[in-house]
Specification:
Elements (H helix, E strand, L loop, with lengths): L9 H8 L5 H15 L6 E5 L16 E6 L2 H9 L4 E3 L12 E6 L11 H12 E11 L1 H4 L5 H6 L11 H10 L2 E10 L7 H10 L13 H9 L12 E9 L1
Parallel strand pairs: 1-2, 1-4, 2-3, 4-5
Antiparallel strand pairs: 5-7, 6-7
Length: 250
Amino acid sequence: MPIPRSPLDYDAEAEAYDATRGGAPRAEAAAAAVLDLVPARAPTLLDLGCGTGIVTARLRRPGLRVLGADASYGMATMAARRGIPVVIASGTGLPVRSRSVGAVSAVWLLHLLREPGVVPRLIAEVARTLRPGGVFVTTVDKDAAHDVGGDIDEVLAPHLTSTPADASAEVTAYAAQAGLRPCGETLFTGFGQGVTPRGAAEALRAGRYASRVLPRGATVEEVATRLGALPEQDVPRADPTYRLAAFVRD
């Protein structure tokens, strides 16, 4: 069964997804950061939740074989068009032999997995696939990265979810339970992800903030209206800075 991610229909969004998520500049920054944490001699890298493959296609270096996996047929189809070997699979049930993969990456995935127990199950499954010395690289605290101290954040602050699925402390604890220990981290810029008030309101109405915002004492439309009253409706606020954490299997 596919992992529940968010109310978005990823099959329907696949064609336009990259253009609404920062495109190539963001993908290049993410890929470079992932490769910084992947062991130099890793023979294989499985990009879990690869989406359209825009990041996966940039995870290239000599001697590294890159594969993709995603639960969405539409997303996997886009990744395949980029020439990426990809399978349609849930992160909690990967069609991969135990102790066979040199590295697994999960970029902008864990924060979407809101169903209780899914994140620790996914991390345990990743640990199963990793060979000794293999590394799991994942974004953590993704939604918190979008709090850049601006007026949009002030509007959304009373409605933020209190228990993000990718909180770094919890992810580290789950990794330890699965036999993985921290081995590094890095930051990268989410180019093109600085939101505008108009864009934030549209994203809220479309359910794209489902992992981050849960309106309290107000309807979605009321919060969106407050965003619509902010000045400079089409001026992007600061880009977020994302954090990647790496965990190694001894």
